[in-house]
Design brief:
The complex is a heterodimer of chains A (204) and B (546).
Chain A: E1 11-13, E2 20-22, H1 42-62, E3 66-70, E4 73-77, H2 79-89, H3 92-122, H4 128-142, H5 147-158, E5 160-161, E6 165-169, H6 171-189, H7 193-203
Antiparallel strand pairs in A: 1-2, 3-4, 3-6, 5-6
Chain B: H1 19-37, E1 39-47, E2 59-62, E3 65-75, E4 82-89, E5 101-105, E6 108-109, E7 114-115, H2 119-122, E8 125-129, E9 140-142, E10 156-163, E11 174-177, E12 180-191, E13 196-204, E14 215-219, E15 223-228, E16 231-236, H3 239-244, E17 246-251, E18 266-270, H4 273-278, E19 285-291, E20 303-306, E21 309-317, H5 319-324, E22 334-340, H6 351-366, E23 369-375, E24 383-389, E25 400-401, E26 404-407, H7 413-430, H8 433-466, H9 468-489, H10 496-524
Parallel strand pairs in B: 1-9, 2-8, 10-18, 11-17, 14-18, 19-26, 20-24
Antiparallel strand pairs in B: 1-4, 2-3, 3-4, 5-8, 6-7, 10-13, 11-12, 12-13, 14-17, 15-16, 19-22, 20-21, 21-22, 23-24, 25-26
The chains are: A alpha+beta (204), B alpha+beta (546).
Chain lengths: 204, 546
């Protein structure tokens, strides 16, 4: 299974057209894109974005995500407040969906990416396959955590009976969208090849 | 191959990507600090019930603008009140004053109006009235259970009306001037000590000018039906007052309008206009006077007069108080409570007049001022109390009965007459009538004997008169008188006897004159007996100057 990697042969893949070219060339001979062996500053970038996501996660949960203005009487609801309300109403499955999509997924993604970053920087990669699965999962499910933001956007657009019932997005909606977007970018900016680079070193 | 290995830098070199989290943190911190800085004060309002109040949902409003939010609703330590924590907006802090009032706006259906319908759908909210007092650091307030009827800063005048009769007034009832609504009753309380109803009234500007010191208030609630010989008279106020009750006010004819009323002035609320006509004066002071005679005919409302001018009325007879004070003994005088109204005799209708009156009566008692019971009507026996001065009365000791100053009394009228007759009879009884009658009897017996002997004397006298000698007596007397006339005519001046008698008398007169002169000289200068007397020069008459 062990064999040469592109890097070991000093070959770099173009970010844009994926042409394999000599790493000593600074630009892709085919499309002219800047040529790097690995994504530049991948780990730092990912970490910085993860920290940003963590910062944004706090207001996303504290501030109201949705403001329901019913007969001039505005009611704020936070994500957790909405989940608790749904449980009180007996809609446990819906509450579970919202809880998983809005709380567990972003949180799990953050933890997973942090763990992968830490593994790479600390060199603790006894099971690189597991780390890769973790990364893939984080990248995949991250997109689905936008469910909450979508629900709010749709409600705001649909329910607009001025004077009777108006739903307005809260500050947390922006923060939450920020969390999701920043984590997606963080996942993108991580170079999974770093996991295997370590493996190669160990093997050498 | 090793020289072909890429240099992977995970190093410590600063990467511009770190600007992103730093910016996020800065923005977050800014938001937190901004929120903290613009955070308003937190206040606690005490309510009896938390009906309709929800933490995090119920708003605090002023003029329908949100100025705060209920943070929590909890019970007090003693579990008897509800403590509502409200987070105020920063800009609303200036509305917290010493007399700021809070109340819950809910849908209310009253007799006069339906209010707060909007809260049926939106839920209750807490309303705030900033008040006019000084800004306070006070953060604990007691909320009103019912909304105040008038905002604190509304222009007008706040009055207190007190009434001692059962009224049909309640909060929100109209105050009318000539049938036009100019104010309302704001509060109704009952003073347990004085046993009077106290109404808080508010007269809106500009109608507060109509209220002056001599303004009178009367109840116009409901319908007043008065049947008399003149016919049936139905008096009503406006439709609203028939249904809900109300208060009218106005100036009494005959009373000059006084100073304009200030907030907090106190007025008496009369039961009706006719009641007001009977008792037009507001201020009265009470006195007790004690009578040791029958009070039959002395009714509450009987006049109290000073030399025939009514200055007050009898309130009631304090027989119960006398008994309860265990002062009722044999011959103990019965106290009578009476009141005097200074305005009846032209003094201003005010508290100060009462003070002046009390002082002057206390002075008057020292110089013989007394009350007395007098008969007002001989047929019905109705009594009244008269106050007058009796300078002969000894100075009285000032005393009090049941907290009222006592005016000393003297018995008078029928009572006094009775007393005088009584004392007369006593004296009469003391007379020694028995022995007097005995003496008289003896005297009468003696008189009988005397009369008998007198009759005998008269009989014998008649005998004597009937005799012949006696009969001839008048003729002899006539003769004697003729003789006497003849004798007297002999000594008339024409006769010699008469001439000499006249001379003798003239001589005697001259002698007497001389003696008189001698005695005068002797009395002025006794030494003239021994020494010669120089005769004074003859007076020469002088001519009066021209």
């Amino acid at each position: 299974m062990q064999g040469d990697t592109a890097a070991s042969r000093h070959l770099a893949s173009c970010h844009l057209c994926f042409k394999l070219a000599d790493a000593s060339l600074h630009h892709c001979p085919r499309c002219g894109e800047a040529l790097h062996l690995r994504k530049t500053n991948s780990l730092q970038r990912t970490l910085a974005l993860l920290v940003t996501a963590c910062v944004l996660y706090i207001p996303a949960n504290i501030l109201p995500i949705m403001v329901t203005d019913q007969f001039g009487n505005a009611t704020d609801s936070t994500i957790i407040g909405g989940v608790v309300l749904l449980i009180d109403m007996g809609s446990v499955p819906i509450a579970a969906i919202i809880f998983i999509a809005s709380v567990m997924v972003p949180l799990g993604k953050l933890i997973a990416l942090f763990f992968v970053c830490w593994s790479v920087s600390a060199g603790r990669l006894k099971d690189p396959r597991q780390r890769t699965v973790m990364y893939r999962a984080a990248e995949l499910i991250g997109k689905w955590s936008m469910v909450d933001v979508f629900v709010v956007s749709i409600l705001v657009a649909l329910v607009h009976l001025t004077g009777l019932l108006v739903i307005l997005p809260g500050a947390a909606a922006v923060a939450f969208a920020g969390v999701v977007i920043v984590t997606i970018i963080a996942a993108e900016s991580f170079d999974p090849r770093l996991i295997w680079d370590q493996q190669d070193k160990v093997n050498e | 191959m090793s020289e072909l290995k890429p240099e992977i830098s995970t190093g410590s070199r600063f990467n511009p990507i770190w600007v992103v989290p730093v910016v996020a943190v800065i923005v977050g911190l800014y938001m937190v600090i901004h929120t903290k800085l613009t955070e308003g004060p937190e206040i606690t309002i005490q309510f009896n019930t938390a009906e309709g109040l929800e933490a995090g949902k119920t708003k605090l409003r002023y003029r329908d603008v949100d100025v705060g939010l209920v943070e929590s609703v909890s019970l007090s330590d003693t579990m008897d009140t509800v403590l509502v924590n409200v987070k105020m907006d920063k800009e609303a802090e200036g509305m917290l004053r010493q007399d700021t009032r809070f109340w819950v706006v809910r849908a209310r259906v009253g007799a006069g109006a339906i209010s707060g319908l909007g809260t049926l759908l939106s839920g209750a909210y807490i309303q705030l009235d900033p008040g006019t007092g000084a800004r306070a650091k006070e953060r604990n307030y007691v909320g009103l259970e019912t909304p105040p009827l008038t905002p604190a800063e509304a222009p007008g005048v706040r009055l207190t009306l007190h009434s001692d009769h059962a009224g049909s007034l309640s909060e929100g009832d109209a105050i009318l001037y000539n049938g036009y609504k100019v104010g309302r009753i704001e509060s109704v309380t009952f003073d347990v000590d004085k046993k009077i109803l106290i109404y808080g009234a508010f007269i809106d500007a500009p109608y507060d000018e109509l209220v002056n010191e001599n303004t009178r208030f009367w109840n116009v609630s409901g319908v007043s039906v008065n049947a008399s010989a003149a016919g049936l008279e139905v008096t009503t106020g406006s439709m609203e007052t028939i249904l809900l009750g109300g208060v009218a006010f106005g100036d009494l004819p005959g009373l000059p309008p006084g100073e304009r009323a200030v907030s907090g002035a106190t007025y008496k609320l009369n039961a009706s206009y006719s009641d007001l006509e009977e008792n037009p004066y507001q201020f009265r002071t009470f006195f007790v006077t004690k009578f040791a005679q029958s009070l039959r005919g002395l009714k509450p409302g009987a006049p109290v007069e000073y030399r025939g001018i009514q200055i007050g009325q009898v309130s009631r007879i304090l027989i119960k108080e006398l008994v309860s004070q265990r002062a009722a003994g044999a011959g103990q005088p019965i106290p009578v409570l009476l009141y005097i109204e200074p305005a009846r005799f032209g003094a201003p209708d005010s508290e100060e007049s009462l003070e002046v009156l009390r002082k002057s009566l206390a002075e008057g008692v020292k110089v013989g001022m007394r009350t007395s019971l007098q008969t007002g009507n001989l047929l019905t026996g109705a009594l009244f109390i008269n106050i007058d001065y009796y300078p002969d009365e000894p100075a009285a000791v000032a005393e009090e009965f049941d907290g009222f100053p006592v005016l000393p009394s003297i018995p008078s009228g029928l009572g006094r007459l009775e007393q005088q007759i009584g004392s007369l009879l006593d004296k009469f009884n003391a007379l020694p009538l028995e022995s007097l009658v005995g003496n008289t009897n003896t005297a009468l017996a003696t008189l009988d004997g005397t009369l008998a002997s007198l009759t005998a004397t008269m009989d014998s006298l008649q005998h004597i008169l009937a005799e012949d000698g006696t009969q001839a007596l008048p003729g002899e007397i006539t003769d004697t008188l003729a003789e006497l006339r003849k004798t007297l005519s002999t000594i008339s001046p024409d006769t010699a006897v008469g001439q000499s008698l006249s001379d003798s008398v003239f001589e005697l007169n001259r002698t007497l004159r001389n003696i008189e002169e001698l005695t005068r000289t002797l009395s002025t200068s006794p030494n003239s007996l021994v020494f010669p007397t120089a005769n004074p020069a003859d007076p020469i008459p002088e001519a009066s100057p021209q």
